[in-house]
Amino acid sequence: MNFWDVHGIVFLIAIAFFPRLTMFVVGTVFSFGILGWLGFIFAPHLVVAILATSIYWHTNPFLCIVAWIVALMGTWSESKIVNKTE
Questions:
Q1: Nearest to 53 by CA among 39, 41, 69
Q2: Residue 68: what pLDDT?
Q3: Phi, psi of 60 (to 5 degrees)
Q4: For helices 44-56 and 19-26, what crossing angle results, to 10°?
Q5: pTM exceeds 0.85 for this model
Q6: Measured between alpha carbons, how far is 77 from 4 in angstroms, rounded to an integer?
Q7: Total structural domains within the chain
């Protein structure tokens, strides 16, 4: 399955900048049970990268690598902001 056959640029931007909202609207959270909810609450960027890699690695590895970079940067920046406010 190719990412661009299923999704567009708007989805890509939304999932990069608003992963919780996008996963909730698309319904990803409901598909994966308790693990989906835990990922949704604690590490949504990582869940997006894991799902992207498991589904689209064979057809678009560059997109998966970018997803991991965004995930690690997003998780790092969120933790830095939380630590700064404490």
A1: 69
A2: 92
A3: -150, 75
A4: 60
A5: no
A6: 28
A7: 1
All residues at 6 or more sequence positions from 36 whose CB lies less than 8 Å from its CB, including other chains: 23, 28, 29, 30, 47
Count of alpha carbons within 13 Å of 27, Cβ hemisphere only? 1
pLDDT higher for 80 or 8? 8
Cα–Cα distance list, 56 to 35, 36, 51, 83, 86 (Å): 20, 18, 8, 34, 38
| Domain housing 10 | 3-85
Between the CA of residue 38 and those of 5, 6, 25, what are the distances in Å? Answer: 29, 26, 16
- Contact present, 57 and 40 (Cβ < 8 Å): no
CA 64 from centre of chain: 10
Written as six digits, the tokens of 55 are 């589904």
